[in-house]
Amino acid sequence: MFARKTPIIAIATATGGAGVGIVRISGAPIPPELVYALVGTALTARQASLVHIKNAAGQTLDQALALFFPAPASFTGEDVLELQCHGGPQLLQLLIKRCLELGKNCGLTIAEPGEFTQRAYLNGKIDLAQAEAVADLIGAQSEAAVLAATRSLQGTFSQTISALVEEITALRILVESTLDFPEEEIDFLESAQAHQRLQSISLRLAELQQAATQGVILRDGMQLVLVGAPNVGKSALLNRLAGDELAIVTPVAGTTRDRIKATINLAGLPVHLIDTAGLRATQDFVEQAGIERTWEAIQQADAILYVRDGSEQSGAAVQADTELQKSITAAAPAGCPILAVINKADLRPDAENQVSNLAGALHISAKTGYGIEALSTSILESVGWSGSNEGLLIARQRHVDCIRLAANHLQQAKSHGSNGNQTLELFAEELRLAQAQLEAISGRTLPDDLLGKIFSQFCIGK
Ligand SMILES: Nc1nc2c(ncn2[C@@H]2O[C@H](COP(=O)(O)OP(=O)(O)OP(=O)(O)O)[C@@H](O)[C@H]2O)c(=O)[nH]1
Ligand SMILES: [Mg+2]
Fold this sequence. Notes:
Elements (H helix, E strand, L loop, with lengths): L7 E4 L6 E10 L4 H8 L9 E6 L5 E10 L9 E9 L1 H14 L6 E2 L4 H8 L5 H12 L3 H11 L2 H23 L6 H7 L2 H27 L1 E7 L5 H9 L17 E7 L2 E7 L9 H15 L3 E7 L5 H17 L6 E6 L18 E2 L8 H11 L14 H20 L7 H19 L5 H9 L6
Parallel strand pairs: 1-6, 7-9, 7-10, 10-11, 11-12
Antiparallel strand pairs: 1-2, 2-5, 3-4, 4-5, 8-9
The structure holds guanosine-5'-triphosphate (GTP) and magnesium ion.
């Protein structure tokens, strides 16, 4: 983490020509002499002033709007000076140069990526989950992602975490105060309704885990992998879903060798489609390499479309398909939804009535588009995507991991307090560990190097 306390400066707007470009300085404090030297006048707090900024030779570089936010009522919690200038890249560089010349004595330097937000975090203006939401809002790719990031930035996610932490703390206080009176331990858990309270915390944590998992998918998109035997129409399906001829489609089995990727937007959810080499035993070295990649893609999938050829209904074909589906299920991550799709419905209009069908399989035709809408709905349902923006949060894998670990500790706590085998010390310790995991989400118990890593992924000027 950046330990320095000296003032920092950066261009807060994107690079390239624009109507307006903003230069921002944050410092604790920003010396008034610096402000005066820069804008040639004393500024009133939170009021826009029209100023002229001059170079060292006294020539006017730009006429700008200057805004001064004294600490602590600013984004970073420090003094903040914002200069809203014309948005020319050369002009903004000259302004930065001039600021650095004038600010040399007070140690003014160019900010590192994320340093403004990090100062806001260190000064208690926002917690870590909110700081991460700032970056996610900037990177949001859909309306749903924007709304969810804003909700997290406003603290909805953090408040849910805090409420859970408070309840765990209350339970810990009860348990730990009982540790001094061992003869009372036996009755304690019962009388304090510890189990019910633990159960209620666990349930709410499970709900939060689900919401956070959705939030990760919203932020990062879902990896949807198309797999199946050769020639079943995986590439044709990718093209149909993407609305473009991206992958080569031919009647030759083994056409696709490399993974082919396309990102589509399904009801606001970014879906990364991955077409793969058809799975079969082969002597072809290149095809073997492609098939290896198919298995790798399966292992990283958020959901799988298992595609079969509906025009191939021989007993042997159905048997082979069933075997293949078993191997795919075994290779997929635990809990990864696998949607069975029977393609080429146009060739066998009666196929939907075949007894050999996989249970719940969807009949589609990549060629005509039949069943594609129902398939899109199933894809969204498979990851629990409601399509509604209401209540969505933006989240990161880091958050989901912390919540999962916290849930594991609560589970452990339960086991230490059951079946007459109550070990209150261990019960209390597991509660403490669960709490620490949840507090890592807001940054309270996160080591400095991890914090530094999170902020370094921000853009400069934020
Ligand atoms: N009639 C019909 N033909 C289809 C349909 N989908 C794909 N095909 C045909 O089936 C053949 C194979 O299609 P591909 O999309 O290349 O199949 P694939 O599963 O990607 O095959 P590999 O890349 O070899 O694994 C092509 O001749 C397609 O035109 C469909 O819905 N109906
Ligand atoms: Mg293909």
